[in-house]
Amino acid sequence: MIKRRSILLLSIVLVFMFSTVCFALPQPLGKLNRDQAIERYFNGKTIDIIEGIWTTTDNKYEITILKNTSGTFTDSDYIGVITRSSESRWKLGEIKLLLRKTASSQLYTGSYYVETTSMWGNGKKDYGSTFTLSSNNLIECYLPTGIYGLPVKTTFLRTYPAYDSLNVTTMKSSGTGFFISKTLVATNYNMVSDAKDIEITYQNDTKLPATIVAKDPANDLALLRVNGLENIVTPAAIGPSRDVKEGNQVFTVGFPLSSELGTRAKINEGIVNSLTGLQDDFRMLQISIPALPGNSGSPVFNVRGQVIGIVTSTLASSHFLNKKNIVPQNLGYAMKSNYLNNLITMLPEEVTLSESASPQNLDASQVADIAKQSIVYIVVKK
C-alpha cells in the first residue's frame, strides 16, 4: 500500500512539473471587445494582411489579430485576443493565438490555446502549428485535438474589415519560372493564382509584366506570356520525364528566400529519390533538394541540361509541419515535365519546344550557365 501511494504521489508531482496547462492567460491589451478593437487598432490605420477580426467556423470564438506591441510574448510578431466568446471560461482580451512570420508571406508559425481537462481541473494548453493564409479572408491550421491526438483542421474566417476596403500593405510573394519558348514562361499555378499583377525579372536587370495564358490547377502548373525578350531569350530544353530513373543526378536553379538570400539565381544539386511523390503520387518526382519558399516553379534539370520536372512550392514542408510537426530535410517534389507538355498542347497556337540535350554529362556550373539563359524571377502582387 505504501509503495502504491509513493508511485501515485510521484506521478502527481511529475504531471505537475511537466504539464504545460495553465488556468489563466494574460490580457495584454486589457478587457477588449469588438467595437473597442475596431476603434483603437483599425479605423484609419494601415494594417498587415493578417491583421483583423476573425471567427472560428463553429462561431465559438471571435479573435482579433494585431501586431504584437504589448511587451508580452516578445518572440511573436502578432497576438490574437478574444473579443467575443460563447465559452464562459474565456475572458475578453485574453490571449488565444500567437503568430510568427516566416519567409513566406502566406505562412506563419505559432501557438493556439485550447481548453483542456486534467486532474487539476479545467485549464488552457497551447498547441504549436503552421498557420496558412490560404486566401485573403481565410486562415487554416491543423491542431492535434482529435481523438487519440489526431490533427483536426481548424479554420478562421475574416469578419472585419472587409478585404476590398482594407488599407493594407500590398501582399507580395515571389518565385521562379523559366522560358519554354520565346514568349512563354512556365511556373507554379499556386504562386500566380490570385495575382493582381505579375512581374518577371530576366538576368537581374530586365523587368517586364506577365499575364496568365494557361493554367492547370490540378497539377499546379501555369503558363505566362511575356513579350519583349524574343531576341535574347534561350528557352530551356524539355526532356521526357519517362526516362528518369531513381538515383539520377538532378539540379534545380531558382530564387529561394529572396528577401534574405538576394535575387541572384541559386543552384542546388541532388538525386531523384523516388519516381512518385507524396503518398505515391505518380505525377511527381521526389528529389533530395529541399523546396524552399521562392523555389516554387524552378526547373529541375538532368545532367544533359534538359528540364525533367518543375518544383512544386513548399508542399513537403507544410505537409509534414501540419501532420507530424517536423520539418523534413533534403526533401522536395517536382511535377514531371510530361504534364507541362500536356498543358502546352491546350494552347490555341502551336508551340515548338526545344528538346536538345548535351552530348555529354554536365556539371553543376555548366547547368547553371544553361539555366540562366531561361529562368526568371517572378514577383506577384495580390
UniProtKB/TrEMBL annotation:
Gene Ontology molecular-function annotations: serine-type endopeptidase activity
BP-aspect Gene Ontology terms: proteolysis
Signal peptide: none
Recorded superkingdom: Bacteria
PANTHER family (alphabetical): PROTEASE DO-LIKE 5, CHLOROPLASTIC, SERINE ENDOPROTEASE DEGS
UniProt-recorded name of the protein: Trypsin-like peptidase domain-containing protein
Species this chain originates from: Pelosinus propionicus DSM 13327
Lineage, uppermost ranks: Bacteria, Bacillati, Bacillota, Negativicutes, Selenomonadales
